[in-house]
Amino acid sequence: MEVALTFGSLGDIIAICQVAVQLGRAIGIGSGVVGESAKEYQDFREDLDAFVRILMQVVATYQQHEFSPYLDGLDNATKSVINQCGTLIQDTLEHIQPKYHDSLSGRGSGKKINDIYRKIEWSMREKDRLRHVREKLQDGMQRLSLLTTLAARKSARVDNATLCARIEEIRQLVSDNCQSREEMLDLLRVQNTASENQAEKLEDMSQQLVVMASNSMFLRPLDPTKELPVILEDALGNELPIPAQWLDSLEWEVFYGLLVGHFKGRSGYDMVLKREYALEESSSGRDLDTNRPLHFCLRKGMKINMSMVFDAATFIAGACPRCKMVADVPEGVTVQ
Question: Which part of the chain is the Ubiquitin-like domain (predicted)?
């Protein structure tokens, strides 16, 4: 972790301050769960807070002084100490947080045995490690305090009012940054709640769809014509099924086109092109009314008989008016 105390270093110092705050929280979670001494944790937390205050003092001091070889040497020495302390804090946080955070938090990781193991491991292994970290941090703080004091004495432009203003500015920046993180966390919580509500609604909709599908399957046998096509039997005895899905939107011109395509290459094609045929409902024997919309004339499962119409110059008594076949019938009987 490189830190430059020249212009532009403020963001790096703030980053170290935030890492120190995160380490204090992580240690607080672990110590509270496994029953460590409250005073021991409080002392470590105070050391971290003191380190943050010293970093603010360093920035306020070095960003105000005029350049000189003496102060430049102090500057380099201070950089080295900050690098060491920053690396120490970062390494400690990276060691503790991923390994213990979920298991030592109030909610736990959801794996009870793993949480118990982590708590025992924390109390047995991490106590000495944290004590060593604290000792090294205290040593770094002492060196930083000494270097900052020497720099302040040599800097002609530093005064108490300026230092206080700079320290307050840095403190405010750190506070604002932490506040923005808290706001982001609150927003994520709200979004998580909304997502959970949405998931519940989707689950309800899924259950409703299952019920609707079940009811649909139950009622389907009550309609014997459900999804049955209209069957058109042409004059040659061939059947042309018309899907039930087409019935509500089928128009006469489209229907005529279907017949033309059906007869293409077959006997009677020319007559179909001239529409010299009749269409009648099989059950009633009535011709379909071409003056009405086609979907009013059709219904699911019905059968339509198609017969060709031949024009004759003369009327033949006792013959079918369509096919002209002579029928031997008693007198007085009309052939239709």
Answer: 227-310
